[in-house]
Amino acid sequence: MYNRRQTQEAERRNPPVGKFLNVDGVRLHYIERGHGDPLVLIHGNGTMVQDFTVSGLVDRLAERYRVIVIDRPGYGYSSRPRQLWTPRAHATLFQKALGQLGVERAMIYGHSWGTLVAVALALEFPSFVRGLVLGSGYYYPTLRADTVLLSPPAIPVIGDAMRYTISPLLARTMLPGMIKRVFQPAAVPERFEKRFPKALMLRPLQLRAAAEDAALMVPSVMELERHYRELTLPVTIITGADDQIVDVGRQSGRLHRELPHSELTALPGLGHMIHHLAPDAVIREIDRLAQKSKA
Questions:
Q1: Of 13, 72, 144, 210, whose CA is between 20 and 30 Å from 50?
Q2: Strand ranges, E, within the chain
Q3: Which residues touch 27 (CB under 8 Å, ≥6 apart)?
Q4: pTM of the model
Q5: Beta-carbon count within 10 A of 275 CB
Q6: CA–CA gap between residue 176 and residue 180 (Å, rounded)
């Protein structure tokens, strides 16, 4: 009852900021800003469209692009029916959603878990994706402690009981430390602390989505890595050089070596949340990709 009240209060304080689409039985919450060439931003695990609005990225990019951000299933105000939400399943859903919005071809910026969806979109629908900017991504299987720590709420029955009882309480306790870690070695920006709707992250459905995505990370990249060389479109890889979440050399650096036509930018002194810490650099890479993909 306590967790239910907390969820209701979180949603009362942070209502939907966009519109809704219905695609294959999934209700998707999205925002759309600006005019110009379509640019789709795909968020990572545990977050939502506000990750890009609070950082200022959406407003700045909307000055010259048609920017679309969709809450991935289970995050923000998007539903998440029971099924296996692999990156390829996300890609199929997103392509249909963007088709409903009249998008025939788009550039994609994916961050963290969103890079898997971005790559899957390019593999599944190569004519749809004009170019990829991949931020702070995870591309190759490694042992990850967060998979073990975050996955239990994804377990059927047991996980359902957890996410309506103890999981929101535990997550509330752990959240400040987790947020601090994704920004390290930089400090958490004041804008993020004040404006990001952290209470929405603690709702049972979003905890399930985050747990399922954490559990799927390793098997997802094991499947995708066999196909990276099929990516012949322009690819830009950008990351914080001191990312505490993803090993830069074993992930972004390795992908760059495997894709000879790709470009790699590592930002010194920055961690995982590059679009908050260095929005100018992210925008610069998106602009460069836009010019390159027109050639």
A1: 144
A2: 19-23, 26-33, 37-42, 65-70, 106-111, 129-135, 235-240, 263-267
A3: 20, 21, 78, 79
A4: 0.92
A5: 23
A6: 6
Q: Mean pLDDT, the chain, as a whole number?
A: 91
pLDDT band at 277 (very low <50, low <70, confident <90, very high): very high
Q: What is the pLDDT of residue 162?
A: 58
Contact 206, 175 (CB under 8 A): no
Q: Worst-scoring range by mean pLDDT, 21-25, 172-176, 250-254, 286-290?
A: 172-176
Strand 26-33 relative to strand 37-42: parallel, antiparallel, unpaired?
Answer: unpaired
Residue type, 210: A
Nearest to 116 by CA among 143, 89, 145, 142: 89
* Tokens representing residue 207 in the block: 């905890």
Residue 161 predicted with pLDDT over 60: no
- Spatial distance between the Cα atoms of 80 and 64, rounded to a whole number of angstroms: 32
Which residue reads 């470009």 in tokens?
Answer: 263
Tell me how far CA of residue 203 lies from CA of 35, 64, 80, in angstroms: 34, 35, 13
CA distance 6 to 199: 8
